[in-house]
């Protein structure tokens, strides 16, 4: 996607290093970073300089290539996989990507590993772009359908499932960009998504593309949905089970409940690497990341000198809990938009795309 006149992806190879967009400085400042080691990649994922399930997976793959660049031995490969796997627990794309790298590299002679690692990481990034483009194609008719009866199609989204969260195009935002590009009047209600405010990233992206949007507090979605001001909800996902339960950013579940109550269609946009075929019980087996309480005690913004700063809004002794994700039960989900088409959020629906 374009930032100003320049086309960017969210991650790219830069010689023997890796370029990323530092998402912790957005929406205030557009800044790129160069990562030179596997440890720097792990740090970038942990601190959410890069974030979003598909992007975490792609960046981790590049992290393996950086590690092997220094030392391509069996031990170094295993250590890199462990370090990267440890960064964030919930988005399954991370494990998916590391498993894929290990499958490609494990049996190779160490001398052959570096080149293969770079090309496999590149392939993962390219494939992600293609998957998201297809998700856009399959999601677009859902918006076109609503547009037959509405002057403006109001879509609610949560967190950031746009191009910043993927290598390009985004998942939930991909159909929205396509709808806007073909002249459909869309307007996006953007949940702020406390505590990390990924909604600001969504607002920044939509604004850069010229898509009309309104940023709202996380608590406003139910009210707007109830009042008929939301036609469609589209969110991303961090892990989807074979029964169609969708784990996504904390707060997604509440939006789905509100949508169900008001008979508003609720879709999750999901590339196949986000499906975890191994989980039996979504509600007990998906590891839900418990993040630092400081994310609740502090907020980041610009100070009066225009510098990015953190201010305290709580006190150190306040007890806080900060689960990062929740699980939306399949019965609240109208459909799952995949790269292969829109499927029901059911075991049969998921089975229809298994292995394709
Ligand atoms: O904690 P984050 O910002 O990595 O969480 C991101 C989300 O929950 C996204 O909605 C999800 O990864 C889908 S991104 C295409």
Structure description:
The protein is α/β, with parallel strands linked by helices and 356 residues long. The protein folds into 2 domains: 2-128, Four Helix Bundle (Hemerythrin (Met), subunit A) (Up-down Bundle); 146-351, 3-Layer(aba) Sandwich (Rossmann fold). It has 12 helices and 18 strands. A 7-stranded mixed beta sheet has the order 8-7-6-9-12-17-18, sandwiched between helices. It has a 4-stranded mixed beta sheet with strand order 13-10-11-16, covered by helices on one side. A 3-stranded antiparallel beta sheet has the order 3-4-5. Helix 6 links the parallel strand 6 and strand 7. The longest helix has 38 residues, at 110-147. It starts with a strand and ends in a 5-residue tail after the last helix. The mean pLDDT is 97. Residues 51-54, 91, 159, 161, 165-166, 171, 198, 236-238, 248-249, 324 line the site of 5-S-methyl-1-O-phosphono-5-thio-D-ribulose (MRU).
